[in-house]
Amino acid sequence: MVLCYNGNDFIQQEPLTVQTPLPLIDDFRSIVTENRPLIDTRAPVEYAKGSFPEAVNLPLMNDEERERVGTTYKQEGHDAAVKLGHELVSGEVRQKRIDAWIDFLRAHPDAYLFCWRGGQRSEIVQRWIYEHCGIAVPRLKGGYKAFRNYLMDESLRLVRNREILVIGGRTGSGKTLLLQQIDEAIDLEGLARHRGSAFGRYARPQPSQIDFENALAYALIRHDAAGHRRIVIEDESRNIGQRYIPPEIFAEFQKAPVILLERPLDERIEISYQDYILYGQKEYDEAFRRGETPYGWYETMQHNFKRIRKRLGDERTRRFSALLDAAWQEQLRTGNPEGHKIWIRALLEEYYDPMYDYQIEKKKERIVFRGNAEEILEYLK
């Protein structure tokens, strides 16, 4: 007897072996708008390079098995590779993988599955699940490749057919905080898991480039499904940390009107202090304790100064590094982190503001409005 899902609940029944056509799905938009769970049956090494936001990796073959099958295919041909694959994934190994797929379907009975091109691997998984207990799990027609192509084409189409507004402003002016108050906004830095500056790395690693692009496409499609006719984004360079905005999409952003968020220096220092110091220390400390990052907050910040040494120059790098160290030692001694505001002020005034002035000069013809957060929200209405 096996455990099977009957559309409402899981029940016990005999295994099925009926050779019936199993469903193929190519309504890719609904996968995005319905937050459809997905089973990625590719090997872990393929999944790590990039998958889809709602996908979990439950592979037919692990990396070693996939490599052996691939080598056999090159040396002996298709039939020998298929035979080896069935030998490697048989008996207890096969049953454990079927159990993993069934367990996921128990929690997500509306899931779809896919492999690279929607062919042999996902069809085998689909057939094994059906033969095991009669669950006809749809697989993506064309697999990962077809869905990925749809996402890239659709995201570019949506960007080209929407009004775009770009929120600019000096470092620390609270652009992300403003975006959170705008229904039409898409948070590029949130999708890239990076604050966009040299000091903007989170303790948690950034997604792969493919994962970032797929997440951006999901965000754009869901934005469209919500009925928004305008996209509001933060002014970004092409790169957000180690990730980059796809060139054709970035070119559209570069043509969009710019709204400048203006905020006094003292408020910008406070926002930077809250984000990079108070939140940053808590995040890095927690990640370090969990073993998710090899360095704590202080070591990471000192490393950030070294990363921009060429732009800062040796003298300023030493001075800023010394200010950071003094504030850190004071914090360790007294528990008061307020001393970090000294080097934040220096970094904003001497590094970020001159760089901003240079960059905004090149965009001055695109500026359509300036104001504080409240004024911008009113303008957008």
TrEMBL record:
InterPro entries: AAA_SelU, P-loop_NTPase, Rhodanese-like_dom, Rhodanese-like_dom_sf, SelU. Residues 32-155 form the Rhodanese domain. The keyword Transferase applies. SUPFAM superfamilies: P-loop containing nucleoside triphosphate hydrolases, Rhodanese/Cell cycle control phosphatase. One of its GO terms (biological process) is tRNA wobble uridine modification. The keyword Zinc does not apply. Its EC number is 2.9.1.-. It is an enzyme of class 2 (transferase). NCBIfam families: PRK11784.1-2, PRK11784.1-3, tRNA_sel_U_synt. PANTHER family: TRNA 2-SELENOURIDINE SYNTHASE. This is tRNA 2-selenouridine synthase.
